[in-house]
Amino acid sequence: MAVTDIKTLEAELKTLIVQTLRLEDVQPEEINSEDALFYDGLGLDSLDALELGVAISKKYGIKLANDPEENRKIFASVNAIAHFILEQ
Predict the structure, then answer these.
(1) What residue ranges do the domains of the chain occupy?
(2) For 44, phi and psi rounded to 5 degrees?
(3) DSSP secondary-structure letter at 30?
(4) Rounded to whole angstroms, how far apart are CA atoms 51 and 56?
(5) Of the candidates 47, 42, 50, the residue with the CA atom closest to the CA atom of residue 76
(6) How far is C-alpha 67 from the geometric centre of its chain's CA atoms?
(7) What are phi and psi of 3, to 5 degrees?
(8) How far is 21 from 36, CA to CA, in rounded Å?
(9) Residues 6+ apart with CB under 8 A from 17
(10) Residue 6, Cα to own-chain centre: how many angstroms?
């Protein structure tokens, strides 16, 4: 999938997050691209990260590293995920 517009990709990712994780109380447009996704931010946990990683890998055809520290950086925010996808 060739996505080159960061804002379009961020919007797609926000929708993917809400749908994949079944976040009933959150609308995609309510997610700030710069906010943390885990803990104090959106409040996601490690199981959410796994589900989200699988969904992103399938949708965008990317492979995530088996490095927890690297994955923490990738999943820090919607913006970080978008940049990672565009770099692949």
Answers:
(1) 6-87
(2) -75, 160
(3) G
(4) 9
(5) 42
(6) 17
(7) -110, 125
(8) 16
(9) 23, 28, 31, 37, 42, 52, 78
(10) 13
How many CB atoms are closer than 10 A to CB 6? 14
d(CA 14, CA 1): 17
Tokens of 2: 């060739």
Q: Which superfamily, per CATH, for 6-87?
A: ACP-like (1.10.1200.10)
pLDDT in tens, 41-52: 888 998 998 999
Comparing 29 with 4, which gets the higher pLDDT? Answer: 29
Tokens of 30: 């309510």
> CB of 21 within 8 A of CB of 44?
yes
pLDDT for 54 beyond 80: yes
Say which residue the tokens 């989200």 belong to.
52
- For residue 6 the two structure tokens come to 């960061």
User: Contact, 27 vs 18, CB < 8 A?
Assistant: yes
Token code pair at residue 36: 């943390």
